[in-house]
Design a protein that fits this description.
The complex is a heterodimer of chains A (176) and B (160). Chain A is an all-alpha fold and 176 residues long. Helix content of chain A is 80%, strand content 0%. By secondary structure, chain B is an all-alpha fold. Helix content of chain B is 82%, strand content 0%. The chains are: A mainly alpha (176), B mainly alpha (160).
């Protein structure tokens, strides 16, 4: 999502915005001052939370490695593989998009479609960095309620959809 | 807020006692990620500051709803399914909306569908898993988001 090529664009945007804010303050341009106040308020709110969240994300990154969990996932069926799937999804960063190739790799390594689908669901709802942000901004109660409500739904839809697809002999398209 | 810093402090101390080198690496990784997210972050804050100046609070409430209105939930789910936003930007935005009076239920519908349903990522999902898989997974995720919202509408006021 963040590419080097769109940094200059944001730099221009910042420059324009800060000049606009400065002029607004100088000539007492009311809408400009209101917008600047909005921006300042939001920024302070973010600054209070972000450093701690990113330290937690860094720690998570260092201590829990994706590769270790994949090794444990194996071909084994049963309820255990669904637990591992959540452990594997937790350190994922960046949302669904980077989740697709990982899910595809799982399938290639012999994971069942039910497991692949549950993994994609878990990537959506239970990534640790995301939960850090969520609980920091919306409160830990929000996160706990959301996760408790989501996990059974994700496992249930993963199993139902996966079983239905497997019954119809569904195969994934061939990729290199 | 304080819990977050206490938790972070404890985590850093435990990590430091276990392995100094790893902890240092963790802090550097965290700072690098923070630095990387800063430009898009400021862009979003600027945009939100401007948009919220022109969109009055009562209009936000009208479309997203302060009560657990199904209209607000549906609007939130629709926006969430279409939009693509990284987590570090989603939740601050949710917090701003929450402060404007949007209900937890609508926030849950919006953030859940945002995380699980992807209309823009659909073409990529399809090349990996095929059309049928991608369509079914997205539809199932949409309903999951709605059920999560339903759970929030049942518990809000009691637990939130």
């Amino acid at each position: 999502m963040i590419k080097p090529k769109n940094i200059p664009l944001s730099a221009i945007l910042f420059a324009v915005f800060f000049i606009f804010a400065g002029i607004s303050l100088l000539i007492n341009f009311k809408p400009g001052i209101a917008i600047t106040k909005n921006f300042g308020l939001f920024s302070i709110q973010m600054l209070k939370v972000l450093p701690a969240v990113f330290i937690l994300i860094g720690l998570f990154d260092v201590w829990i490695k994706k590769e270790t969990v994949i090794k444990h996932l194996g071909k084994g069926g049963g309820i255990k593989s669904f637990m591992w799937v959540f452990l594997l999804a937790a350190p994922m960063a960046g949302g669904l998009l980077p989740g697709f190739p990982v899910a595809y790799t799982l399938y290639k390594k012999g994971a069942r479609l039910t497991v692949v689908l549950t993994f994609l669901g878990a990537v959506g709802i239970a990534r640790a960095p995301m939960v850090f942000f969520e609980s920091a901004f919306l409160g830990w109660r929000f996160s706990v309620i959301r996760i408790i409500a989501s996990i059974p739904l994700v496992v249930l839809t993963g199993i139902t959809l996966g079983k239905a697809l497997e019954k119809n002999k569904y195969t994934l398209p061939q990729k290199d | 807020m304080y819990i977050l810093y206490v938790l972070t402090g404890v985590a850093v101390i435990i990590s430091f006692l276990a392995n100094r080198k790893k902890t240092k690496k963790a802090l550097i990784i965290g700072l690098k990620k923070l630095w990387k997210i800063t430009p898009p972050f400021i862009s979003v804050l600027i945009s939100v500051a401007i948009v919220l100046y022109f969109v009055p609070d009562n209009m936000i409430i009208k479309y997203l709803g302060s009560a657990s209105s199904s209209f607000g939930v549906i609007t939130g789910t629709m926006i969430g399914s279409i939009a693509v936003m990284p987590g570090p930007i989603v939740y601050p935005l949710c917090k701003i909306l929450l402060d404007k009076g949007v209900s937890y239920t609508v926030i849950a519908a919006f953030s859940s569908s945002l995380m699980m349903v992807g209309i823009f990522t659909f073409p990529i999902e399809r090349t990996y898993f095929g059309t049928k898989f991608a369509v079914l997974r997205n539809i199932a995720s949409l309903f999951t988001a709605l059920i999560i919202a339903l759970v929030f509408s049942l518990v809000s006021g009691k637990l939130l």
